[in-house]
Amino acid sequence: MLDQDQLVERVKSYLPNLDEALLRKACEFSKEAHGSQKRESGDPYYQHPLEVAGIMSEMKLDLASIITALLHDTVEDTDVSLADIEKLFGTEVAKLVDGVTKLTKIEFQPDHIRQAENFRKLLVAMSEDIRVLLVKLADRMHNMRTLIYVKSPEKRLRIAHETMEIYAPLAERIGMQKIKNELQDLSFRELHPEAHKSIVSRLEYLRQEGTQLVERIVEHIEHTLKEADIKAYVYGREKTPCSIWQKMERKNMNFEQLSDIMAFRILVDGIPECYHALGAIHSTYHMIPNSFKDFISTPKDNGYKSLHTIVLGPEQQRIEVQIRTHEMHEIAEMGVAAHWSYKQGSLFLVDGKQYRWLRELLSILDQASGPEEFLENTKLEMYYEQVFCFTPKGNLIDLPRGATPVDFAYAVHSNVGHQCVGAKVNGRIVPLRTQLQNGDQVEIIRSKTQVPSAAWEKFVVTGKARSEIKRFLRTQQREEYISLGKAILSKAFKQEGQDMTEKELEPVVKAYKNKTLDDIYASVGEGTITRADIIKIVFPDRKQADPAKKSPFSFLGFNRNKVLKNEEDAISIKGLIPGMAMHFAGCCHPLPGDRIVGIVHTGKGITIHTIDCDMLENYSSTPERWIDVSWEKENNDDFHTGRIKAIVSHESGSLAMLANTIAKDMSNISNLKIVSRSTDFFEIMVDIDVRGTKHLSTIITDLRSKPCIHSVERYKS
Ligand code: MN
Fold this sequence. Notes:
Layout: H1 4-14, H2 20-34, H3 47-58, H4 63-71, H5 74-77, H6 82-107, H7 116-127, H8 130-145, H9 153-173, H10 177-191, H11 193-209, H12 213-227, E1 233-238, H13 241-251, E2 262-268, H14 271-284, E3 286-287, E4 293-294, E5 307-312, E6 318-325, H15 326-334, H16 336-339, H17 356-367, H18 371-377, E7 386-390, E8 396-400, H19 405-412, H20 414-418, E9 420-425, E10 428-430, E11 442-446, H21 456-459, H22 463-495, H23 502-511, H24 517-526, H25 531-538, H26 547-550, E12 571-572, E13 582-584, E14 596-601, E15 605-610, E16 626-630, E17 640-649, H27 654-664, E18 668-677, E19 681-690, H28 693-704, E20 709-714
The site of manganese (II) ion has 4 residues, from loops.
């Protein structure tokens, strides 16, 4: 068992200028924080962080990483706060400890093993600083080494499974072969105890059988290389039980058939020597066909470089031989952790496109002047463009960066998206346009009456959300066009003294061969087929009246209000949603209570203006586009934008007075613009949410009663 002095000595061996007092302070701090807590093994808890720090020191990591390892469980498991750590050990350590604590928290999400690949990505994405990930791996390593002390068999299995599926592959991803092998083997022992036992005893037996077999082969290889005048370090090893087992499974072989359970490594000084040595080996021993792999000219995705070959060894058994430089070897064993021990020397570059992060890592290393700076700059970029969030049940949803709760909802299911009215992120209600962060737990609040809003289209980032919203809006828009078209036609029929029935419309359906009746209604609503077109078909004998004369608006330019005598005749705009088949004109901001008129825009439905809007002059020559429309009588629940122009004194408190008055009248300011200002007055334009003209005039009257407000008018451009 490691103690404090040994740890200090180890770190000192590679960091000669170590701030020993600080390291010892961290040891003492951790010891005191964990106090009398015990591990399941019965050891004092403090031994765990100390051992984790020991593993970090094997990777020759910097002091901040070592201290982080010592403190990694304090925030989660003791009374210590991040602020305490920051005060005593600085921001860098506090940030790292915070990172590790966050990882520890998400570790306990249920069901994450099922989504191992995503979970690995999440761990990486959340680590941000590679040192956080390394502490987490070292933590897991020590927990695996002490797994046998965990009493609950279910817990042991879960931890082993998790290690096999998540942490071992992660170690491999960042190129740490040695850690990967140990994690895998420790998990294997727990997950397949029988297989583990039998492989270990087979290995034992072989070891006794072939006494000093490994040594004899090593000597033989050494001799071969010496003959070829190559300076090399040769050693042999047995493969790990787990890798033997995996090979047996993969190749469907039994242990006896599996001959290459011994592997030999040849370490040389440079790349030319690698190929040199390979030549010597291949010309001395028979090579097994198709077994040669050149990972020097084509490195693995994680940057691994080596030559692999299988030959018939000196004693006629198949052996695997790996040839690499010392540097490649250290990098293969230690992965990214090895990089900062190479201040100079040749760096290898990875060509794999999908491993941009590693290239970036290496290019940072290339530019960094020293190992400290390297660590400083090594933010994990691997999954930078993704965020990973949880459903309340713990399922992981993988989204592009910038995704919002609406994207999340659609990623879960299109119905969840359609019915989304709000979202809770980590238990707090947030606006739907909020950008999600890694590890966020997102709960979508749904309502059966909710429909997607056109506004969502502007902020969603996933293709799925966008296309689902578009599709929904298109369907809904069509339904609106259909009901609007129906209303327009039925009114046109009424003016002709007829009721509109499907029978009456038969000739129309015949005339438009490719259209259903609904298509025709929709076209009328949309404005691509006019009322007159339909009337001409249904009543062909009727003499087409002068449309201007027919139009109730033929008196244009006179008192328009007089014309809308019969409000019964008007088409109700009830149920039409602004932005779909109907738009409210931005010039006059019509409000419930105003006399209104609709103008048909081909392909866009109708725009609603107030009857006295100046813009209507533009349509005076096309009366067929005018439609008599009315508000639904009980339309009091919806808010509409009313625009007012006010002149207020340029004195303190006058704007507050204006805002308070509006609020008191149960309205809300949605926009405010200062049109002009002088020494004495402000002229401002205010958009307020009102229920109708009555509501607006109440507010205007109230505003007029305030001394600092000079004049208030409803404003129409
Ligand atoms: Mn721990």
